Every structure is written in C-alpha cells, then in structure tokens.
Amino acid sequence: MKVGIITFHRVNNYGAVLQAYALQKTIQNLGVECDIIDYSRKNVRDILLWQKNKIKSILKGKPDHQGYSNFEFARMVLTTLFFNNKVVAGKFEAFRKRYRLSRAVNSDTIKGLNSEYDLFIAGSDQVWNCGRVILDKNYLLEFVTDREKKGSYAASFGIKEIPGKYIKDYKELLSQVKYLSVRETTGADLTRELIHREAKVVLDPTLLLRKEEWAALIDRKPKQEDIIIVYMLEYSETLLEFAKELSRKMNYPLRLLNKPFHYKVKEEYCREVGPLEWLYEIQNAKYVVTNSFHGTAFSINFNRNFYVEIAEERIRGAMSSRIEHILSIFDLKDRLIQKENTGNPHKAVYHFKNSSADIDYNKVNLKLEELRADSMVYLEDMLKVKDGLSREVAVTAMDAPAIS
After folding, report:
1. pTM of the predicted model, to two decimals?
2. CA angle (59 as vertex; 57, 65 as ends), nearest 5
3. What is the full DSSP assignment across 288-331?
C-alpha cells in the first residue's frame, strides 16, 4: 500500500508542521509507504476573499461569521510578517526536509495523483474549516475518484456550525469518505448531523508519538529549568497577566516562546524559534502557559505542568472545542485559566488552587496509552495492516458506518 496525506504542511506554524510529521511517521512505523501531498493552496486568494466576505457582512448588516475581527486579523498578519523572518522560515524549511513529499501539485494538477496512491488521508489539523477561507474541496478529497481510497485521520472542522451555503458540499463530499475520523467530539456531532454517520474520534497525531520519540529529534540534551514558558498563538492580555501572577507566586521567571505584535509585551522572549527549539522549550519548562491546542498537547505528552486559556477570538470562531476536548478526555479541566469578575476591568484575580501541585501524570499517561492504542487500531484498520501484515477491513459497504 502507498498512502498520500493531504494536510497543512507548508504553513510556518509549530502545530501544523509537527502534526504532519507525526502522522507520516506513525504510518511509516507501521511499515506503510507514505507521502505528504505537496499541495499548494491559493492563500492570497483565500485572504482576499475572507476580507471581501467580512466587508459584505458589514455592508448588508448581516452577522459576521469570519471568526476574527479586522483588528485581530491585521495583528495576526503583521505578527507573521514581522517575526517570521528568513532565519525562522529557514528553520521550518529545514524541518520539512524530514517529510517525504509527493511531486508538487496544485488545484489544477492534483487529480493526476489518483493513479499513484492506494489511499488518501485528509488530516489532521483544521483541514475541513471553511470559517475563515473559502471551502477547498480538495481537503475533503473531491479530487479522489475512487471512494475506496478516501480516508481521514483526526480531521477538524474548527467550527461548530456549517454555513448554509456549504452544507450541500459537505454532505456530498463527506458521504463519499469511506474511513471517517475526526479530532473532536464537535466534529463527530457535525458529521452525524450532516450525513447520519458516526465518525471515530481519535487522538491528534502528535500524541501518537511518545515523548521519547519527540525527544530523539532534539539535538540538545534535556536541561530542566525552573522557568515558566509562555506560548501565545494569539496575543492575550489576560493570559500574559496570569503568567506574570503565576511567576510572582511561584518565584519562577517568565520566557515567551514568541513575541506577539503588541507594545505591552516587554518580557524576555526566545528569538527565531524553529520547530525543534519550540519542542525543546516545552520539554524543559517548569510550567507552560498557553492558548494553543498544540501547546497543550505537547505539555501533556512531555508531562509538563501547564495552564491554558481559551481566548475570546477562539470562542467566536468556535475553535475552543479542540482545547475543551483535550482537557476533558484527560480530566484536566482544572488547568483552564479562570478569572474572577471583580467589577474592575483593570484588576483581575485568578484562581491558583493547583499552582503548587503537580499534575498526576501517572493517571494521565494511563489514559493517553489507552487512547493511543484505540487510535492506532483505527489507523491500522484503515491501512489494512496488523502487526505489519496486510489484512482486509470488514467495513466495505457503501452505506456502512465509519469504523468505531
């Protein structure tokens, strides 16, 4: 069998490149030949259309479903342009050399891959999210001509409701995916609502690789530091204030993994951090404070104490579900940053009932092994392997439910 994965592998985002590597590596560990499809999206077109739709919503007085405000979107773009310099981009590109890639394709040439692979897998990451950009049907495997070759692993919608104009497309394309799995329960709910099928909820691929496998990629030896690492996917004043308060309480210094584009951020930060340096900092932190799903996932995998915030913009974009889900399955909801309402917007009081207590990772690791084994069974079934040997999958009927 030869497998092609279609995912977000080109964006210079830590979670994106690491999940792509993890899924490919896990499949290769099962003895299956696997490429990441080197698909180039029309990103500039997507951004322009995103802005066009936002302006249309404002002019027509309709609800804005674009997820981020204009200010938040501009800040994300400026942060990307300002800090994603040649050195950082070079480190991401160096990491991507670990991928095994298909030949380069675009929306006009991707159909030519049909004869080159026995199975196509969509996922992980928010490959089925139409909330911020146009719906790219290639991530829903429209380009694949044979239903028997269509599968997904931990695909995420990133939204809780499908816009009306896309419902027909989702119904048609999802019903043609033979092996159907998602990353969050909200994704399973959406699939059930759209096509009346049960999608298997599986682990993010970064959690399929054990911490020892991730550590083996890092050049430097572990050096445990009494330091609080702050990783903000989007700038959050409340998260930063929480981290400062935690620093004062625990008497540990702060270090930011990235410097958000905001004048208030004056703390020490790591310069020009590539994927492997990002892993190293998470691996060796005393605490991790984050609003990132993958910041949370790697904190769990590396057994770090952490706190996570669900940022306001994520609530509007309905992307909070993936953080809520991972905290729920590991019974770690008490690591969610909570703030008391004091009535004074300039004075916040945070709950620190767990700041002096380590997470019970014996319990968490047992759950992780259980979920890892369950996800691997799904993956082995989709790949038709068991202990490295080819075998048939029982579910073959066109109207059969997804493997569960």
Report:
1. 0.86
2. 10
3. EEES-HHHHHHHHHTT-EEEE---HHHHHTTTHHHHHHHHHHTT
What is Dmax (Cα atoms) for the chain? 63
Angle of CA points 144, 150, 153, to nearest 5°: 130
Bigger pLDDT: 362 or 11? 362
The helix/strand/coil state of 86 is helix
Residue 58 to residue 337: CA distance in whole angstroms = 33
Return the sign of the alpha-carbon dihedral for residues 312, 314, 315, 316. Answer: positive
Amino acid identity of residue 337, one-letter, is I
Contact 287, 230 (CB under 8 A): no
Model pLDDT for residues 21-52, shown as the tens digit of each residue:
999 999 999 999 999 999 987 655 555 666 67
Residue type for 285, please? A
Residue keyed to tokens 């942060």:
79
The span from the CA of 352 to the CA of 305, in Å, is: 13
Instruction: Determine the distance from the C-alpha atom of residue 8 to the mean position of all C-alpha atoms in its chain, rounded to a whole number.
Output: 10
pLDDT at 76: 63
On average, the pLDDT of the chain sits at 84
What would the two tokens of residue 189 be?
């709910």
Query: What single-letter amino acid sits at 370?
Result: E
What is the three-class DSSP state of 117? coil
pLDDT at 234: 78
Give residue-wise pLDDT tens across range 169-202: 999 999 999 999 999 999 999 999 999 999 999 9
